[in-house]
Amino acid sequence: MEFLREVANFLEAEDIKLLRIFMRDDVTSASIIRIFEDPENAGKYLVLLKDRPKAIYIVAKIAERIEEYLKGDEASISYELFMKALEEIKDTKDSALKLKIHLLVRDAIIRKINEKEYETAAALTSEFYEFGLKDCLKKLLLIASELSERGDYPKSVKILNLLIPSDSINELKSHILEEWGKNLMAKRDYINAASRFLEAIRVGNRKEVLINLGDAYFRAGEFENAYEAYSSIEITAKNEIEVLRRTSMMLNSWGEELVNQGELEKAVDKFNEAYQTAIKINEDDIAVNALKSARKAIEMIKGAD
User: Fold this and answer.
1) DSSP code per residue over 147-185
2) For 49-108, how does the pLDDT look when each residue is reduced to its tens digit (9 = 90+)?
3) What's this model's pTM, rounded to 2 decimal places?
4) What is the four-CA torsion angle of 191, 197, 200, 206, rounded to 10 degrees?
5) Contact 156, 145 (CB under 8 A)
6) Please, are residues 180 and 148 in contact by the beta-carbon 8 Å criterion?
7) How far apart are CA 17 and CA 137, in angstroms?
8) CB atoms within 10 A of CB 45
9) Does residue 120 sit in helix, strand or coil?
10) How far is it, in rounded angstroms, from Cα 190 to Cα 87?
């Protein structure tokens, strides 16, 4: 048959033998041929093949194999047919067919990775993860890490977002978001950096990112948010000086901002808190500056009276 000759190069000998058997049945034969003549409307013919899941598998395999040689809309249509066919048989209880689906999907994922279509590969891995695709998952996690190393943080995070969430994926995403935030900090894009740090904390519950969050808000002049971030850090013997030094410097800057806004009494409170915080860690320069600023603000209050 002409159809068999056309698709033979895309199938293994076992598949061709199986397809020959299916093509002996008029309804099955007509349905398969019509599926490839009009793949956009294949749904109604896939319904006619429901009692022949292995025939649907053959359809999926042909669609996946020929997509590699197509471009643009034609490739998209072929991929959609591949997915439609798999959707019909993904819940099969036939262990032999399940293994075939596993191998077919794995081949499709590896091809998408090689073609740098990482988002499609990630979506496929999630859709069929129950078929046992841990090796594909690991490849995608490595790719996401490498993309972040090259500074392509949006694509890296998008790949991870398409995967089924797990502790390891969330932890990796948190680290990449933190790196992204640091990169934005270096570009002085402090508000967007803060957004990345917040997401890193939310996704990975990594409290150590709080200091970066506080720094981002501090440099953006978002002093109240910076104060909240620094105050949320659990103070230990190891980080006490680092955290309190940042806090006291931020409070000094906050006080100066309040002076510029005419909020002199509030400014004095911030300078006093900066002074007390700096004294705890023997940061004399910060303490002296805070004290001087407080006295100046107090003089301004008296002058206004």
Assistant:
1) HHHTT-HHHHHHHHHHSPP-HHHHHHHHHHHHHHHHHHH
2) 999 999 999 999 999 999 999 999 999 999 999 999 999 999 999 999 999 999 999 999
3) 0.86
4) -160
5) yes
6) yes
7) 33
8) 21
9) helix
10) 45
